[in-house]
């Protein structure tokens, strides 16, 4: 009887272990092997800011242009903002449940709130300064949002809203870490400002390439050094993404030496406190946008930049080139196998293939 009991117990344990092994394998994201790219929108426009909202791809671009492409009915809406004789270039976009927000680079800074139903477009913030240059914008929730940009004083410029974007207030430099002379940010793809829950990260470049972190929706800040190439005006971190509150990836390099592939990518496993270079002297050079693949356990990433679209299935250690199109500036995922990218004169749909 005892022998039978031990046999049954052993069989049960083996079966249990096998079930657990199977479960682990099932939860492991299957790597991509290739990608196809389909044009879905074409115009004479430079697009560095997109936002996906219920099947609509909202975009903001140069020459005062903004709008959306509806994936469901294949129709598009083209809007235009005119302000005196200014040629507005929108490189930041964000959304709430009811509105889209677009923010231009240069002075004066102009932030517009647009009703999704098309009933209203309203200027909700403006700032004049010879150095003003906003780079990125995001929302924590439907009431609270943040935008960041180059310093006009001795800190990065940061504005916040706590009333759904109706009003915005600039933070005092007393509330922010001091920057180094020549340290700024890049409006490459609306990805140097990242939000996960209450956590917020901002990245810089130029004389210093650093990561600024807030754990309380922008009320207090700390700053950390990175090993990304720095010291010249067009070097540093151009893009960042976090899979969760701990795991993140930064990329960039030297915009003036786009093939330089060392000191241009790094990872963190502690929420941005420490960073380690990865894939040094391998894969791509200058990168304008990095994104984690959804539901990939932080293992899969895609990057667009001067050498096309690259993909990694091992947290950035190794990369495969899926496209040589150097005119894609920004990318976002619709789901865990489809993304939308935009850039020079187009928006495209990227379909990733699995084995």
Topology:
Blueprint: H1 2-27, E1 32-53, E2 56-61, E3 65-70, E4 75-80, E5 90-95, E6 99-104, E7 109-115, E8 121-127, E9 134-139, E10 145-149, E11 157-161, E12 169-170, E13 183-184, E14 193-196, E15 199-203, E16 205-206, E17 210-214, E18 222-225, E19 235-242, E20 248-254, E21 265-268, E22 276-277, E23 287-292, E24 301-305, E25 308-312, E26 320-323, E27 328-333, E28 338-354
Antiparallel strand pairs: 1-2, 1-28, 2-3, 3-4, 5-6, 6-7, 7-8, 9-10, 10-11, 11-12, 13-16, 14-15, 15-17, 17-18, 19-20, 20-21, 21-22, 23-24, 24-25, 25-26, 27-28
What does this 3D model show about the protein?
This protein has a single domain, classed as Methylamine Dehydrogenase, Chain H (7 Propeller). It is mainly beta. 7% of the residues lie in helices and 48% in strands. The strands form 7 sheets. It has a 6-stranded antiparallel beta sheet, with no helix packed on it. Strands 5-6-7-8 form a 4-stranded antiparallel beta sheet, with no helix packed on it. The chain has a 4-stranded antiparallel beta sheet with strand order 9-10-11-12, with no helix packed on it. The N terminus is likely disordered.
Share of β-strand residues: over 45%
Oligomer: single chain
- Count of DSSP H/I helices: 1
Radius of gyration computed on alpha carbons: 22 Å
Relative helix content:
under 10%
Summarize this entry quickly.
With 355 residues, this protein is mainly β.
Task: Please give a handful of descriptors for the protein shown.
355 residues, mainly beta, Methylamine Dehydrogenase, Chain H, six-stranded antiparallel beta sheet, four-stranded antiparallel beta sheet, 1 helix, 28 strands, 7% helix, disordered N terminus
């Amino acid at each position: 009887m005892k022998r039978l009991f031990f046999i049954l117990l052993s069989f049960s344990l083996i079966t249990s272990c096998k079930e657990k092994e199977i479960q682990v394998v099932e939860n492991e994201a299957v790597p991509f092997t290739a990608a196809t790219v389909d044009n879905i929108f074409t115009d004479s426009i430079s697009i560095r800011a997109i936002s996906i909202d219920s099947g609509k791809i909202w975009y903001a671009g140069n020459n005062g242009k903004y709008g959306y492409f509806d994936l469901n009915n294949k129709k598009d809406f083209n809007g235009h903002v005119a302000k005196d004789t200014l040629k507005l270039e929108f490189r930041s976009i964000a959304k709430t449940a009811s509105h889209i927000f677009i923010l231009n680079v240069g002075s004066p800074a102009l932030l517009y709130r647009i009703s999704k139903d098309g009933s209203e477009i309203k200027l909700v913030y403006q700032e004049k300064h010879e150095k003003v240059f906003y780079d990125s914008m995001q929302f924590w929730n439907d009431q609270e949002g943040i935008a960041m940009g180059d310093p006009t004083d001795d800190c990065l410029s940061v504005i916040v809203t706590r009333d759904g974007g109706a009003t915005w207030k600039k933070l005092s430099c007393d509330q922010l870490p001091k920057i180094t002379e020549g340290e700024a940010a890049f409006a490459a793809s609306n990805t140097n400002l990242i939000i996960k829950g209450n956590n917020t990260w901002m990245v810089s470049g130029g004389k210093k390439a650093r990561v600024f972190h807030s754990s309380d929706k922008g009320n207090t800040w700390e700053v950390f050094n990175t090993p990304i190439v720095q010291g010249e005006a067009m070097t540093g971190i151009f893009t960042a993404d976090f899979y969760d509150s701990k795991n993140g990836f930064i990329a960039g390099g030297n915009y003036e030496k786009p093939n330089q592939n060392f000191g241009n990518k790094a990872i963190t496993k502690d929420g941005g406190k420490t960073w380690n270079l990865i894939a040094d002297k391998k894969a791509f050079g200058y990168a304008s946008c990095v994104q984690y693949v959804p539901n990939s356990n932080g293992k899969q990433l895609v990057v667009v930049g001067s050498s096309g679209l690259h993909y990694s299935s091992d947290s950035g250690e190794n990369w495969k080139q899926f496209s040589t199109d150097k005119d894609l500036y920004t990318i976002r995922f619709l789901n865990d196998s489809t993304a939308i990218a935009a850039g020079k004169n187009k928006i495209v749909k990227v379909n990733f293939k699995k084995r």
